[in-house]
Amino acid sequence: MTLQSRNASPLYKAEAEWVKNVHSTRQKLAGICAQCLNRTVRVQTIDGHTFEGVVIGHDHTYLHIASRDTRFWGPLRPPQLRRLSCSNFWSLLC
């Protein structure tokens, strides 16, 4: 049985104003991330997590950084690639 045949209604639908704000924020962050390409950044998420690394790429959804987190493995650990959701940013320092 498909969703169409059951006349399913959405469980959640985002408000139009929220969607507009998310699109606007994504566009703003895309421009900022482009300026930080190949530079060291510190990202703090709205959940309170902090990540540091070099920006190696970005798209309209994610910021890609190479991070050397030495807390567990020491300075010889190879860079860890991280993909951070731009909609989860609280701050971005470049």
Q: Your description of this structure?
A:
This is DUF2642 domain-containing protein. It comes from Cohnella faecalis. The chain has 94 residues and is of the alpha+beta class. It has a domain at 37-93: SH3 type barrels. It is built from one helix and five strands, in the order αβββββ. The chain has one helix at 16-35, and strands spanning 40-45, 50-58, 62-67, 80-85, 89-93. A five-stranded antiparallel β-sheet has the order 4-3-2-1-5. It is elongated, with a radius of gyration of 18 Å.
Largest sheet: 5 strands, antiparallel
User: Over all CA atoms, what is the radius of gyration?
Assistant: 18 Å
Span between termini: 51 Å
Strand content: 25-35%
Query: What's the multimeric state?
Result: single chain
CATH class of one domain: Mainly Beta
Fill in the CATH topology of one domain: SH3 type barrels
Please state the average pLDDT score: 78
Protein name: DUF2642 domain-containing protein
Compact description:
This protein is α+β, with helices and mostly antiparallel strands and 94 residues long.
How are the SSEs ordered, and which strands pair?
Elements: H1 16-35, E1 40-45, E2 50-58, E3 62-67, E4 80-85, E5 89-93
Antiparallel strand pairs: 1-2, 1-5, 2-3, 3-4
Keywords:
94 residues, SH3 type barrels, five-stranded antiparallel β-sheet, 1 helix, 21% helix, elongated
